[in-house]
Give the backbone structure.
Amino acid sequence: MDSTPDAWAAADTYLADTLVGHDPALEAALEAQRAAGLPEIEVAPVGGKLLSVLTRMSGARRVLEIGTLGGYSTIWLARAVGPEGHVVTIEAEAGNAAVARASIDAAGVGDRVEIRIGRGEQVLPTIEGPFDLVFIDADKESNTIYLDWAARLGHPGTVIVLDNIGREGEIVRDDTTDSKVIGTRDGLRMLGEDPRFDATALQTVGVKGWDGVAIALVV
Ligand code: DHB
Ligand code: MG
């Protein structure tokens, strides 16, 4: 096989079919998101399952998500924390939050999910921790602010997942003017330099192109 974006997407779809399978609630959430005209930038199915597996591996019960969008990743996280768990998710756009609320409720995990509407920078100082896992998937320009809050609202052992660290390889450009790439590079530098974190990153190829996630531990 030639390594092309189409081949990556086909292999990713195969992995999702094999490891995730048909999931009516998640598919309905994606359909509602599409129907409402939200951007189709949710995590891939295998990425959602990665969040679930990390949540369960770490035994996380209190999860913070920054960037709800249509609630697709939120449903993965809410299922993973179990019936005694809790997810707080922050969404800047009230319209997105309404779509997410309906999909999360329809998925049967609404009682575990609190959606806080507002920009992360404004909402985070009003949120009470601690959180066992933090998923950061919002405006990339604010990554360092979100990582700082993740550390402050976390505890030793808190897992942090930072989405979209690959950006089609643009992360190597130290002269970039793309604010999302600058924000991504700033976040990665913080994860490397700030002694509160111990981090690694995985590049991914698939239905979302060439991208990746950073996975960090609060030490
Ligand atoms: C973008 C944001 C995301 O969270 C994502 O997963 C993919 C792309 C973006 O803003 O470009
Ligand atoms: Mg993302």
Remarks:
- The pocket of 3,4-dihydroxybenzoic acid (ligand 1) is lined by residues 41, 137, 163-164, 180 (CB under 6 Å).
- DSSP finds eight helices and seven strands in the chain.
